[in-house]
Every structure is written in C-alpha cells, then in structure tokens.
Amino acid sequence: MAEPKLDPTIPPGLHLVSAFISMEPTNTLLSLSRECGGGLVTEGVQRFIWDHCISNEAGEKGYGPYLRNFVKRLISEVESRNGTVLDELYERCGYYMSSLKDDRLVKGSARVHKCISFLFPDVFLGCEPPSCSKSSNLVVPLHCSLNMLEGDTGCSVWPSSLYLSEFVLSFPDIFSNKSCFEVGSGVGLVGICLSHVKASQVILSDGDLSTLSNMKLNLKLNQLSAETDVLERFGEDPNTVQAELYNKSKVKCFHLPWESATESELEDYLPDIILGADVIYDPSCLPHLLRVLVILLKQKKAYTQTWEESCEGRLQDAEHIDVNGASEGKSLFAHDIHCVTIQNGNRTDPCHVEELHGGSSVARLMKCPVAYIASVIRNIDTFNCFLKLAEEANLVIADITEALVPLNLLPYMQSYNRSSIRLFTVKCK
Ligand SMILES: C[S@@+](CC[C@H](N)C(=O)[O-])C[C@H]1O[C@@H](n2cnc3c(N)ncnc32)[C@H](O)[C@@H]1O
C-alpha cells in the first residue's frame, strides 16, 4: 500500500519542518521523523525531508555542520533498521563530508540563521479553511550565535524568551495598544512578538553592544527597522520617512547597561508594560536591574476614561478580580487591576481615581505600569537575592505561572522545557 503523502502545513510534517528550521537538536529531528513514518523513517519520510528540509531554500541557507549531522544520523537510523536510503541523501551526505571537513566552526561562535515558528492551535489541529486559516502561524527568522555566552549571553535565544513570546501571543489583549519596554532583550524575539500583537510602541534595550547590533539585524530581517533608520535616510522628506516607519514599525532599540542607566534617560518612555526574559542570573547585576525596574515602574501615567468606556472595555473584568489577583472565569490583566476596581457597579479606588465629574461619569485615573518577568530559576540564592532587593525597593512580586498559562505554540520544540520557567508580575507598592 502506498504511503500517505506528508503535508508540510499540518502535523506531523509541519512539526518536523518547524523543528528543522529552528535548528532543534538532531535527536528531536529523528524522533519527529519517526513519528512522521509511524515509527520508522520510511522512504516517504526521507523524500519529505529531502524536499522540505534539504534540497530547498531552507537547506541552502542552513548551517552546514548541522545539516551534515542530521543527514548522517538519518542514514544510520534507516540503515540500522535495514531500510532503503534515498540516493539523494547518500550523495548529499558525501558532499557535506568532503566540503565540511573542518569542525572548528561547530564548536566556535558561528552565527546561524534560524526560524522560530509559533504554531497557533487552528494550525496544529490541522483543520481546514475557511473556519481556520493555515497561514495564521508566525515564523520569526533570527540571526543568533551557537555560543550561548556570546554577546554577554544576548546573541542566542534563551528559554524564557520563548515562554514570554508564547505568553505575548497567547494573551494579545494585554499588550495590544500598550507601550512596551523590554530590558535585556537579546536577539529581540519578544519585541518581534509584541509588534505582531500590535503593541502601540515597542522599546527594546540591552547592555551589550554586539547583542544590540545583532538585535538590529533581526529587526530588519523581520521588516521592523530600528529607529536609527530615520537618520540613515537623511535627505528624504522626514514626514514621508516618519509616516512610513510609523506604519511599518514601532520597534526601537537602544543601549541600556543597567549599571549606568539614569532616571533622566528613562523618564521619557512612560511604558505601560515592562518585560524581561532570563535577566535574573547574575547577582552582581541585580541591584542595578532593580533600580531600572523601579524607575520604570514608578512612572504613573495619567489618563481619563468615561463610565461608558470602562463598561465597554476590559475594566469590567475588574469585578472578577480580587486583590490577590485571582480571577473568576474571565481573563486577568495585571495592569488594569491596580488602576481601578469596580464594586457593585461603582468605581471605588481612592488611591487611583483622582477626580470624578458629574456623578462618576468621567474619571481621571493614574495608571501604574506592570512588569512581566520570565525566568528559569537556576540558582535559588540568586533568585532569593532578587526577591529581597525587590522587597527593599517597595516592589510587589506575584508568581502568575499557574494563573495565566500560555498556549503551547512550540509543540515541536522538544529541547524547550517550559515547565522550568516561572512568570512573575512586578509592581510598585
Ligand atoms: C540570558 S540573556 C537573555 C536574553 C533574552 N532576553 C532571552 O531570553 O533570550 C541576558 C540578557 O541580558 C543582558 N544583560 C546582562 N547584564 C546586563 C546589564 N548589566 N545591563 C543590561 N543588559 C544586561 C545581556 O546582554 C543579555 O542580552
């Protein structure tokens, strides 16, 4: 009986291709290859890999040593089960072996091009249009280093930024139309996801200059030019350039070492939301990181809202939220909770409602920012030091990992252990 043809737009073919372009370890690729063939890497699966991973653009752009290892392991897997290996794979393996004799690059700081595919539920459930669109997944191309320590650790993708990106994409309403500011942004993945969910402004920062230039490269790769482009396009009508950039990109990035960051440097940003992924790891940096968080978190933003607006909007959810942040049924949005609460249909929060006109028809509110920090707790002493410094700085930290669980948008990434990551909100007392 002929083997069913694999489709690269639905699982399991989709997972295999996604794992390949995100440069998942070879073991993951082999396990997904077996899954595609019902336990064996059949000739049909090999043909699929040849067509969708090796002989196409992905294979041409791919990193040689990675491709060589995959093809070598694939061949031994098939041979060990007495299967038939495609001639094309033998030939390509021979080519890799002769042209990539030098292994130094594999161990060094080679820059590679990978693509992180966020697969939305309708895509990975594999249902057909029009009820759901196969094109709704988000593929983010990134330049990064194979050396996790390069660029002060900022040139590779760390697991917390995968988690924070899944969080942003799973709860877009938290971030859309909000001004977002990230510290220690690394390759820029979270910022690209924030732009995807239409944050009103995305400001990325990092203290390492080589990380920053790599991040700028990634913004360009994702058609999100860094703001410096305005200067580079000197001579053109600034209004046209500004309008173009406004429509196309709202992402800016800048050099922000926490040690030297000043209040005056940060006071213009007024973010609604601050983000950080895997930034709690070096005890010597923590006092400086916390100082930056305090500066950003204490900037209250004034805004007005009518009663009708609040009834139409998400503030209605505040009825379902208690002071500890537990929610009943509806989504919980941390940045709304501390602005205003609604009790029995009346707004009551004397701390934040500054003035009420005409029997509470218009309120002038002070909105405090909130930070979302995702972290793998590798060293409990370092994390406890962060908690202690936060307490001393009058910050309140809440672990929201279980309360707001993001969708699993990276189901093919077997190397990514999401259970090791915690998500915290940080607010001023
Ligand atoms: C472990 S990496 C995480 C990168 C990225 N957020 C991610 O999760 O993929 C830590 C990041 O914090 C930045 N960083 C470390 N110390 C810093 C400091 N003192 N000031 C500013 N950025 C710093 C590094 O350059 C790096 O980009």
Could you give me the name of the CATH homologous superfamily of the largest domain? Vaccinia Virus protein VP39
Are there runs of 5+ residues with pLDDT below 50, and where? 124-134, 228-234, 241-248, 313-360
Sequence of strands across the biggest β-sheet: 5-4-3-6-12-14-13
Number of beta strands? 14
Distance between the termini: 67 Å
Averaged pLDDT, please?
82
Percentage of residues in DSSP E strands: 15-25%
What ligand molecules are bound, each kind once? S-adenosylmethionine
- Number of individual domains: 3
Pfam family, one: Methyltransf_16
Protein name: FAM86 N-terminal domain-containing protein
GO molecular function: protein methyltransferase activity
Describe this protein's structure.
The chain is of the alpha/beta class. The chain folds into three domains: 13-107; 114-299 and 369-428, Rossmann fold (3-Layer(aba) Sandwich), CATH 3.40.50.150; 302-367, no CATH class. It has 19 helices and 14 strands. It has helices spanning 13-21, 26-36, 43-54, 57-61, 64-80, 87-99, 104-107, 121-124, 159-170, 172-175, 189-196, 209-221, 229-232, 238-248, 263-266, 286-297, 307-312, 334-337, 380-392, and strands at 111-118, 138-145, 179-183, 201-206, 251-255, 273-277, 301-306, 342-343, 346-347, 353-357, 362-367, 370-376, 395-399, 421-428. Strand 8 and strand 9 form a beta hairpin. Helix 1 crosses helix 3 (43-54). The longest helix is centred in the first third of the chain and has 17 residues, at 64-80. The N and C termini lie far apart (67 Å). The site of S-adenosylmethionine has 23 residues, from helix 9. One of its GO terms (molecular function) is protein methyltransferase activity. InterPro entries: Methyltransf_16 (IPR019410), SAM-dependent_MTases_sf (IPR029063). It holds the Pfam family Methyltransf_16.
